[in-house]
Amino acid sequence: MCADRVIDITALNKSFGDFRALSDVHLDVSLGERIVICGPSGSGKSTLIRCVNGLEQFESGSITVDGINLKDPGGVDRVRSEVGMVFQQFNLFPHLSVLDNLTLGPMKARGLSRADAEALAMEYLERVRIPEQAQKRPRDLSGGQQQRVAIARSLCMKPKIMLFDEPTSALDPEMISEVLDVMVELARDGMTMLVVTHEMGFARKVADRMVFMDAGEIVETGTPAAVFDAPKSQRFRNFLEKILQH
Amino acid sequence: MTRTMKLWALLCGVLLVTGCSGGSSNWGWYVIDPSTAQGASNVRFLIGGFWATIQLSLIAAFLSMLIGLLVALPGMSANRWIRLPSRVYIEFIRAIPLLPMLFWVFYGLPVVMRSLGMPITIDAFWGAIITLAISDSAFTAEIYRAGIQSIPKGQTEAARTVGLSYSQTMRYVVLPQAIRRILPPLANQFIYIVKMSAFASVIGMQELTRRANELVVTEYRPLEIYTLLILEYLVLVLIISFFVRWLERKMGADESR
Fold first, then answer.
1. How far is A210 from chain B (nearest CA, A)?
2. Inter-axis angle of helices B222-255 and B37-47, to 10 degrees?
3. Is the pTM value of this prediction over 0.90?
């Protein structure tokens, strides 16, 4: 195994009942690599990244994250402490203030004191440019602000890898760029990222590699320049036509 | 709520006035008339059952909430073999009427325990508490399940991805959100326990109903005594309702902050 490889997905298979969600998926990710996964809905792209941190179980194949096999005893918990995740629906804790959303993980899972956790939280709130919202409840924030809080919440756990599951799909159009800007900065800082998104502008700007999925398979992969300018498969061409036509 | 209370007060007032006015020979309020020595002693005897009823209900409700949670949590597992005992418990306990279960616990359980080499004595107080708690726990378990399952799955997922364990996720993320939805039906269940505690009278527990029964036997005035008994439960339940509304308002206000 190559030394700087942080994710190793081999021969992954998963079904929901009769529906084949993933079939024979192979994917390696190197440290610091930014991967954008796209594909039509139901193609298995969300399922794939949810398998990486154990939110979905899989039937066969193996996933190794930073040398930890997910199927090892306690493997899921150890992997989750290395991997942050941002969801389409933000999933902030509505009963807690923004600050408490950020400090919960560091305090309960990492054992930080409240003072240390709050200092850490404020540092990341500055980074996503909303420190002034710290005392508010999530519901009082706009969608774009909520998603930036969610990103900061994940970063507080100092993950090695960040997973993004359609982070801008639930946002109003005018709020998409403020979230993407934060993600671009994160990419510049060298974070290893797996991003499921339809934002092809973002993909062109930051992706080291594009992965196109359809019907549970990885159909095509390559640098953005290569796959956008000369898609090899008909399925990818059809998909690009649909999302780029307006 | 206040309208219901007014209506009740009116109804009780009418009953009292028609009864006390002496025009009808069917009523004999002297039996619980506090201005006479015998009446006052009778009323004290009846009201003396409050403490036992309250104790019984509170302990049984507390145990029921505890057992209910312990039954509900494995009942939501993704693993069917962990889920199964919880489902069996709920279906089984829910199907047993309270009175037969009370008889079984009071008369039968000591025999079973003795044959297992664990001789225990169960007095009326604990017999009633065990029965009420277990019988009610099947319902509280379902209340917890409904409340917890009403919290979106994304909340659990987000909590797990920021490193919280299952029990931390429950304690800091899911239960604080679920409690607002759980509280009203749980209060309902508590009122139900208060009323069902009357069954403890049949195994000799000296609570409100038992005392009323005993007084009826000596005084032969069932109408007046049972009217007072009903009013006693009414007062108790209204106090609980009032307290729960206050609690709900408090939590509701907290939520909208």
1. 25
2. 40
3. no
